[in-house]
């Protein structure tokens, strides 16, 4: 139906009626026109409003990516159509659900008769999951301009917020343009040396070990062998969703930083022709997706990552990796996202990984907190600052001991701050491929 709101024009006309009352002091009987005047205004106000509410005057539809990314601006484009044969000025606000921050979602639009236009704004979801956009609120003037009509359009729709898929698209674009170094990925590692002979090419500051001397003698110039990276190897992402991943770094849970980095790794591995799989666990096994090749497999893993959430339970490493060992025998790169904060936790993790360590290449990935460096660098001024500095020093020492314990157990340990985690992980994967470690 819509709600009627008086406009400034109506209040001006109501105020003008007071002149009739005052005019009665000069022209006797003029004040008697005040009641008919006000009744006429009221009738005109409600009649014009009823007419404006009875017939739809504007339609609004949205266009956006079918999958939105968490914690970054996602563009939404509104198509606004004038359903009348007269010029129309509307104000509109596209509502956003809780935990989704809109940026620039209010507009004033002037439309030609039966015309249409487009406006864009951004949505920034705070968490992964399913949300419902409540609809669009539109305000327009009724005939004669005495009332505004507020209408809630029935264009609500559900949106799915996934891990940062936009970062994956940006990574692919940068790779195609040769700009991967700008995000910290070492581009030269993308080719790899491999072990399979592929072709011959002219020497270009390459390693002398790869010079083909027979071809060099035959052509009269230095020629090197091109080797193809091995393909169809397996990469398994293991995601701990227990209590250790509930901790927040820069206001975001460690699990969400891990999910974003895992998605980037899975995309890089799939692009290199490798099989990719996913293993999600806490005190029980939540999901196991065996490694396969192809974009459909990455899409399936993305759907699986869509809904994973941390739980306030202690992860059962022994049961989890025993389950993995029973389900997958082929040698693989196994990347475990967890957060061993001290030596005891690292020892438990290393012991649980012992049975599969000889078969697989294992990487333990942890999310570092930038605030730790800031606290360690703060000057000590007062007792509270001293306590904070002491706690940070103690915590940093515990994490170093955990890292040492993992490395002593022949486990590769990678720790990086959120903004560097994905690039560091992709670089580690490319190093593994270059050195043919799996």
How would you describe what is shown here?
The strands form six sheets. This protein has a six-stranded mixed beta sheet, with helices on both faces. The protein has a five-stranded antiparallel beta sheet with strand order 1-11-10-5-7. The chain is elongated and about 115 Å long. It is built from eleven helices and 22 strands. The protein has helices spanning 8-23, 34-54, 165-177, 213-219, 254-271, 295-306, 317-327, 343-357, 370-377, 383-408, 418-434, and strands at residues 3-6, 58-63, 68-69, 74-82, 88-94, 100-103, 106-111, 116-125, 129-133, 136-141, 147-153, 157-162, 196-202, 223-228, 234-240, 248-249, 252-253, 275-281, 285-292, 333-337, 361-367, 412-416. It starts with a strand and ends with a helix. It folds into three domains: 1-161, Immunoglobulin-like (Sandwich); 195-228, no CATH class; 234-434, von Willebrand factor, type A domain (Rossmann fold).
Could you describe the largest sheet, including whether it forms a barrel? 6 strands, mixed
Quaternary structure annotation: single chain
CATH homologous superfamily of the largest domain - what is it?
von Willebrand factor, type A domain
SS-based class: alpha+beta
> What fraction, in percent, of the residue positions are helical?
25-40%
Strand coverage percent = 25-35%
CATH class descriptor of the largest domain: Alpha Beta
Q: Give the terminus-to-terminus CA distance.
A: 66 Å
